[in-house]
Amino acid sequence: MNRCAHLDIDAHLTITGGADAKIEIEAQGRVISVALPSFWTGRRIAKHMPNARARNRWIRALQLPLRTLDLSMELRVSNRVVAVLRGDSRGSLLSRLLGLGTMELKPLAMLVAGFQR
């Protein structure tokens, strides 16, 4: 697969949708960071895609442009990186069991973020 020469992104976007549903999307250089205020916000968002097969398709579709543009995306919860998706991410047994396909999960960070409000 051909990759783009060199792409750096500098952007900031805030999405607000309720009491604690403020999602910050920031891109610097080659990393796109999606920050959720709490694990519970992420859980509410995930309910809209309860089917593991649909989540896997969505993640694979997102992975293609990341691979092509040589970018990575990290998911932060409570200021901790809990998951990373790169063009060459393979995922783990845990990510497949949770229906998150090739997403690279950070179990310890997930556990700590889950206990924070």
Q: What would you say this structure looks like, in words?
A:
By secondary structure, the chain is α+β, with helices and mostly antiparallel strands. The chain has a domain at 7-38 and 72-117. 33% of the residues lie in helices and 32% in strands. It is built from 4 helices and 6 strands, in the order βββααββαβα. A 6-stranded mixed sheet has the order 1-2-3-4-5-6. The longest helix is centred in the middle third of the chain and has 18 residues, at 52-69. The radius of gyration is 14 Å and the shape is globular. It starts with 8 loop residues before the first strand and ends with a helix. The mean pLDDT is 86.
What are the salient characteristics of this protein?
117 residues, alpha+beta, 6-stranded mixed sheet, 4 helices, 6 strands
How do you describe this structure in short?
The chain is α+β, with helices and mostly antiparallel strands.
Architecture blueprint of SSEs:
Elements: E1 9-16, E2 22-29, E3 31-36, H1 39-46, H2 52-69, E4 72-77, E5 80-86, H3 93-97, E6 104-105, H4 107-114
Parallel strand pairs: 3-4
Antiparallel strand pairs: 1-2, 2-3, 4-5, 5-6
**Based on CA inertia axes, which overall geometry fits?**
globular
The helix count comes to 4
Which secondary-structure class do the elements indicate?
alpha+beta
Relative helix content: 25-40%
Mean pLDDT across the residues is 86
**Beta-strand segment tally:** 6
Q: How would you characterize the largest beta sheet?
A: 6 strands, mixed
Strand order of the largest sheet: 1-2-3-4-5-6
Low-confidence stretches: none
Radius of gyration: 14 Å
H-E order: EEEHHEEHEH
Distance between the termini: 42 Å
Proportion of strand residues: 25-35%
